[in-house]
Every structure is written in C-alpha cells, then in structure tokens.
Amino acid sequence: MTSGLTGKLLLATPALKDPNFHRAVVLVLNHDEDGALGVVVNRPLSVDVAAVLPGWQPFTTAPGKLYQGGPVALDSALGLVAVPGDRPEPLGVRRVFGSVGLGSVGLVDLDAPPEVVAAELAGLRIFAGYAGWSAAQLEGEIAEGAWFVLPAESRDPFTDTPDKLWADVLRRQGGDLALVASFPEDPSLN
Fold this sequence. Notes:
This protein is mostly beta strands. It has 4 helices and 10 strands.
C-alpha cells in the first residue's frame, strides 16, 4: 500500500498532531526508496504570485495566490500545472501523474518563459516550500495512522475551494472515510 505513492493524495488523519499538517491534503510528487516529496495543495497564502514571480501571475489559476506547499524550504518555489487531456507534455513541464488523453498534472520549470509554457496549460499553482520525508519515514507515519492514502484527481491541486478539499476528498471515498469528513476541528469541543 505504501510503495509507489507518486500521484497519490495524503490526507492528514485526525490523529496527526503536527500543526503544519492539520487537515492537510498533500499531493505526492515523488516517492521512492530514498524518501518522498509532495506539496500541501489546500493552504493558500495571502500573497499574490506577482510578489515573488511576477511573470507567472497572469497565468495562475484563480485566486492567483501563492500556496504554502509545506514546512520545508519556504524560500523556494514549485510550479504545479494541469495539462489538458489531448496534449503531450509541453516544453518545460515534467509529468507527475496522468496521461495524454486523460489529462495530467506536472511540474513546470519556473525559469522557462511563462508565455511559451502557459499556452499549453489548463491550470497553474505556485507553492512556497514543500513537504519531505526521508527514507521509510512516510511509510512509518502511514503505519502509525497519521495519513490516509487516497487517489488523486487531476483537478484536486487546482480546486477553487481549497478550504473544503480535505472534507471533499474524504466524502468522495464513501463508507467510513466519508464519515471522517464530519470530524470536528477540535474534538475536545464535541
């Protein structure tokens, strides 16, 4: 269950006490024997993309804000893009998951000219920082019950309601996981 998590969503369970990941939805961008890397896709900041990467601002998916991708390297930026289903991988984009015909999500080279790359894209979000795990660390956290591992949909990282994404992903699973979506923010107030 824990091998090959690239392209999966990690949803923080109510048991995860780390405030950096409270109700976080993490898209795993890379997972192998050396560890894992992902971005939290449901944490918009109040900062416009133009404040750090002005050339990319016109091409970002609404609301055009920078997102906090995780607690690691907050001074770095990652660009996540949606590639429409009928297009091959555009210049400057590395596919993370999905395929031609179905649509895909990829990483964009933020040093590439935005005008050249953006014409081929259906969505763009810029993340400050990322979430990272050393070898076997993520697997251990999953075994301890800190994360739900769930399938991602290509629209998840570009949702216009990031504050509802954690509950929305759980509800679409059905069964017991759908019930977790109604878990109170602070169980002690229940």
